Amino acid sequence: MLQVNQIGFAYTQEKSTLSNISFQVEQGQHVAIIGESGCGKSTLLHLLFGNLDANEGEIYWNNTKVLGPAFNLIPGLDDVKLLTQEFDLMPFTSVEENVKKHLSRMYPEKNDAICKDLLNTVDLSALATTKVKFLSGGQKQRVALAQALAKKPKLLLLDEPFSHIDQYKKNKLRRDLFAYLKKEKITCLFATHDVKDMLSFSDQTLVMYKGRLIDYRSPEALYEQPKSLKVASLFEETNLIPGQLMGGNSTENYVVYPHEIKLNASNKNLEAKVKNLYFLADRYLIELELQNLRVFAYHNKPISVGKKIAINFSVENWEKRKITPIQK
Ligand SMILES: Nc1ncnc2c1ncn2[C@@H]1O[C@H](COP(=O)(O)OP(=O)(O)OP(=O)(O)O)[C@@H](O)[C@H]1O
């Protein structure tokens, strides 16, 4: 189990980078770390690995305290691996040699099989004998992933592992990689900007905002019951609707997702004006003006800009969608 207790960290005296971060991760769980650029995702991963010394708090991996460079000359525990956004590869050797470098030399036949399996997982079998210097950025990132796995970690920390990988390859790679990690019972924390990584491949999602942890639940729970607009906005265009407009007396604001706004509604409707529309392949995102609010809804057909249209809200359990402002 990974246990993080009230971690605080600052690169400089003037500004704190992370404050009061506590959470735990059970063995074999996959945790996405998500939040806007600069909120501290990479810094947190480096602290978890032991590349940085926390100013406050403690980190334990399976009851062993993770120590930073002030106490540990060579950072990192044996069964913990960190894959950063800079890959440490040998350019003049082949893809398979780069991976095998991290396997024990005692069992060459076994290593061949492991290497084959890993290259298959990252979809690089066809390039096994190609020198790394001839690879694209995305291919290098996949070699680095295979290398990290070759080290047989029990805890794998990935900093934006798919950032160089195109959409075509990414979908299959994500499925294969996370299935491999589950099969091998490898605990994984991965920083990402892609909501699809978080939705489909994390058991829990850790949401960060300005160096703080503002939520830590399953993606389903975050979606169904977002506590803040920041969290709701991770998923898609999000509407914040005052309770009175939803048919109640509440002065609170509630999250309503675009698919929960019905257009051309026949009962209890409100009038909105179409301001713009955006093609999304299988549907349109319709931008509406509702009283003084900007509201987004989906529709399966285009609607003329300027048209007035009747809408209503169709939210199950809307009391769960009450929003609490994040403290500044
Ligand atoms: N070596 C450093 N020295 C000083 N400040 C740093 C250093 N590295 C990062 N920072 C600052 O710490 C904050 C957090 O950076 P970090 O890279 O952890 O964010 P992030 O969430 O991973 O961002 P991104 O999503 O853009 O990768 C930022 O304000 C950044 O400018």
UniProtKB/TrEMBL annotation:
Residues 2-235 form the ABC transporter domain. The keyword Amino-acid biosynthesis does not apply. It holds the Pfam family ABC_tran. The keyword S-adenosyl-L-methionine does not apply. InterPro entries: AAA+_ATPase, ABC_SmlMolc_Importer, ABC_transporter-like_ATP-bd, ABC_transporter-like_CS, P-loop_NTPase. It comes from the Bacteria. GO terms for molecular function: ATP binding; ATP hydrolysis activity. Keywords: ATP-binding, Nucleotide-binding, Transport. Gene3D superfamilies: P-loop containing nucleotide triphosphate hydrolases. This is ABC transporter ATP-binding protein. The lineage of its organism: Bacteria, Pseudomonadati, Bacteroidota, Flavobacteriia, Flavobacteriales.
